[in-house]
Amino acid sequence: MSGRMARRRGWGAGLFEAALLFSVFWLRSFFPGLGIGSVAKSDGILGPIGPADTAWHFGILLNLLPAGALILWTMQRREGLDAFELRPRPAPRDAAGSLAVLALLLGLGFLPQFLLGLFAGKTPLPSWLDNPLLDGMGHPRANAALFLPLLLASSLVTGYVEELYFRVYLSFRLGSAGLSKAARIILTSLIFGLSHGSSQGLAAALIACLLGAILALRWESTKSWHEIGLGHGLYDFVVLVAVLYS
What we know:
- Helix content is 70%, strand content 2%.
- It has 246 residues and is mostly helical.
- The protein has a domain at 92-246.
- It has a two-stranded antiparallel ribbon.
- β1 (38-40) and β2 form a beta hairpin.
């Protein structure tokens, strides 16, 4: 009985730990009005910062770099990285795998927009398809030679840290609590999607859920954090470049 109670306390403490980490680094994504600064726009009026502003990407780096370090430290301290099947160093095959992940994510990510443009014609799209974060963000004012490397860095850090938490760490914690692989994929994808949809709208949440499920399936089949982290980061970079410079 004591061993069973210890196991229950173990996975319960693990889920509590996962909830604490989520609350520190991702809970505020459900309240997009919090913690957003403002910068002077081209017309001289102060406005909220967004992906077109360098401050946005510096903020991502300042938030997610410590998040990734803390998650890795927590994993190593409790069970060790080997328990999570995590390889700290990338393998040569990870680069090729990440390009396959990128192609799949781009295909799925842009498919709804392509189909709507194909069949909707000039019919106004329903409001739930709007993305408040991306709509009307304008063009970056910073020089592209300086802005694009910063955008790439923030995109890669986002991809790596989000995959570390949602696909590697959180899935392990849910598995320790007795959830099946299918249940882990569904639950982590829903949480991932909701974290995006709170600031980007319902359509973005649904697409993020779908992409999260694809990434989760890829993690379950390859156990390559670098493949999914790099593929995710490159997807964010390509999408933002397409929106910012279109």
